[in-house]
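Re-run with default settings, no changes from the original entry. Doing this only to confirm the output is reproducible before filing.
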Amino acid sequence: MAKMMDIKDETYAGEQKVYECIESNLPDEVICYYNREINGKQFDFCLLIEHMGMLIIEVKGWNSSNIIRVINPDTIETNLYSNSVGSPKKQARSYKFALVNTCNNKYCINPLVMDMVCYPFLSENEYRHCGLNIVSEPEFTLFKEDIENPTKFAKKIASVYQKSNQTVYDKMVGDVYTTCRKHFEVIEEVSNDVSVPYSELRVYSNGISISNISNIVSSYFSGIKQLIFVSREDEVEQIVQNILSKFDEDGLYLKGCNFIINSNKKNEMKIIGEKVSFFNFEIYIIRNLSKRIDSNFIIYNGLIDENREDDLQYIANNSKFNLQQYMVEHAPIDKNIVVKAGAGTGKTFSMISRISFICHQASNANILDVKNEIAMLTFTTEAATNMKSRLKQAFMNYFVLTRNKKFLDMISGIENMRISTIHSFSNLVIKDTSLPLGIGVDFSTVSGTYNKQKIFDQYFNEYLKKKNEEEPMFFGNIPGSIYDFRKLLLKFADMLYNKGYDIKEATEDVFGQSIAKMPYMKEIIQEVIIKTEKAFSSFLYENNSVNLTEYMLYLNRCVGDESFNKNLYQYKYIFIDEFQDVDDSQIAAFLAMQKKLGFKFFIVGDLKQSIYRFRGATMDAFNKMGCSGNEWREYALNINYRTDMRLLERFSELFNYLGKRNLIPYIENKDKLVGVITNQFLSSDELVEQIEYSKEDEDDDIYKILFEKIKQRKSEIESNPSFSKLSLSERNIAILVRTNFQISKILRQAKNQDIVLVESDSNGDLYRIQPSIDLCKLTAALSNPRNPVYLFDLLLSNNINIKFPVEKLIKMQENEKLNFLIKCLDEFYLNVINLSWNELVFEVQSKPVLMVLRKIYEASKPWKTYSLDEAKQQYYRTNYDLVFEDLSKEGKYSYLTLDSINESLHILINTGSEKASRSISEGGDYVRIVCTTVHKSKGLEYDTVIIPFTTDSIDTMHRNGLDIMYVNGKVGYCFSVNGESICNEYFNTDDEILENEMEESRILYVALTRAINKFVWFNKIDSNGNNWGKLLEEM
């Protein structure tokens, strides 16, 4: 008789019959588990058979009269249920794979797991007659005759083992067999993985012994994070040298925070200061530690006894140990966690450490499958890519250190882990529930700008024609120009989508009464905007597409729909970065998913950095998430690793002032950023620089001061003795502005000077910069090889590096000029490429044009003529290459000729193509100067931040534009034209002005906290009104 580990349930006759068959007909060594849960799913039977493996049996107690029809393997209609049922074979396989994943990930074993379907009341003939043979093959199905015949039953199970297609597996003997039993039965011993802690915080107030050092080294190389506190330098020296010696012995070389394997280099480390740290290891010196703490102790996994809380606080106050990050990392795994993280406080490090902790605590957290049970959501693809890369590197370091293959499995899991933008995550969920919503699984995502504009223009033009027939002077009633008014109307619906409201469902009362100055506005909303949205929605439906702006609306519908299949998701934890930027519809969707799936949140954000109000973000994000509830634990990070501590002190004066005025959510004792770094090459007086000017000063003079100031700071950075060791961020100077228009002003001025090279991350300037212009001059001359005008342009460009005597041309005839110009070109090209001008023209006409242009470029080296500055040369080469890439792409769609390339370049340059140039952020021993908006700088850092424009008013309505509110089911809107605001009754102008002032203050906070070492701002001393300049004067 088989060993039955669970009591028989009398509820289901089919399961009762199979239970009795197993118990009576299988040998003693077979162990049967009944109605057990695996990874949140309950199987019917699991047989554990020594020397073979495990067999999952899914029982369906159907009679032939119960089966109406089998439509397909996933749709079986019966008279037992109102809805059709799915495939029992797939149900069995899902239990099988859940069991396999558990064994692989939790116990590092790979046993054979098989699956079968059992119909105890159906014969094989009835099974075929009903059509169930398309659901499961007969060889893997138990029938009535099998259950009732012990020999047939045993043979059928044996045949499944023989036909198993799992070619590589661990035999069900010894430790593998014992481990599988321990999973289902009471475990008397603790497995090795669980007994090894994640971290050890060690305090040695009474000195350290050789045995202590041996334990530290052993623990560290077992993968246990070490945080150590001692009172003397020699103790640090002993511990660190023992670890470095083991690195050398194992062929590991520590480079930064990561390892290089199979290295012959010897590890050396100078003990400077009172902290030493590298991967998974930190050691601190605290003088007179024994005077405050009377005995040595160890804290495992962040489980702090009450009597040690004061000791840890003392340690944090008297060292650079970050107790805040430690508490976040080791926070309870059964609670939702919210982390209020100030600028530069290491939130990415904290999130990675937290995931490492959760992965280690797999058994307690019930995390069995990292790639399916943890998701991390960010706002940008770059952030997601960076997070995944750093997580993989962390687990690679664990593997290199311990040689434990489970960390390789972790890396594989992280590679497939859902680390993505919120919209990518939404796309996945929408696809899973797309059919009930009326869209196909393979729907495409579109921005739809062009098609939507076409539909809008049709309705708008029809409306204007109708109104003009009714009122010949109607056009005069529209505020501003028709063109500008049209652009604002096009934004109307999208702005409401960003606030989680679907305008297609709006009724007239939602928009209030007609406005006296725009009595036609309600008509336009109904007859143009809503009709456009409905027509565009139909267009998307017909083309199986979803508009990106409506993603969150679809996500909420999916989660709320009764067809939402929670069994598709196994999430136990969802991490959300930059939570202050989420909108109401995203919050609603996250909470609805949590209610259905039961996962825990780990969210990180900072309301002081909430600067995406135009995208629907509000200051109530954390409250709406319910972060103050009992199921949440709140932590704060305010120790800043980015900015000079003296500069932070200066900033705190302003932040405190803004907090007292309620312009930013700032309470000094909670939100003040505490610095830990100091730049020894800058005095306190040099950290903040105010450049004053007045309306009497010329613009050109102000820009000249700006570029000279940049040149000065660039020179200071380059003269730093440690320049080669500076990070890319520490080699960056940023000019931060509010708008793209301001970037254009800076770039125009930058082109007229030769002091510094200014790049932009925000402007499409590729075809307005010198590399494109030089290439265009070359192709123009090659296309017109005997036209003196084009040859003259070529000789004066960076393509030709010779002294060209322009004055000689003045008295020459046309033929003489042509011959002279060709002679000059011959002289240059014969020298650099060994071809005359005519030979070069023949070559470009007879060979692949891009190949010849590239050959000319490499030989003539125009970047050296362009500038002697290495950074400018690199910038030139980088963007010349980008133009070539663009031209190569064009060649995929049409045959490239010299004339077609020349024509394309002329069009792109003359029409002002918005293609962005490429920055030179990677490598190079130079300082990069970038001009960008504050919004684009979010998440970045720069050695020096310069704010040149500080006079724009921050407490008025926009001079031109559209503002929209959605509160309590009502839509408030306001059109601003040439400084005049036209609003409906639901739009509160005073509230909007206050919101503008607060958001501008938060934007200023973000701008300042990008700086590492220095902050420079321009102050127009005779400016009027409330602006950044007036706020900065408080600093």
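Residues 381-402 form the longest helix (22 residues). The CA atoms of residues 397 and 671 lie 34 Å apart.
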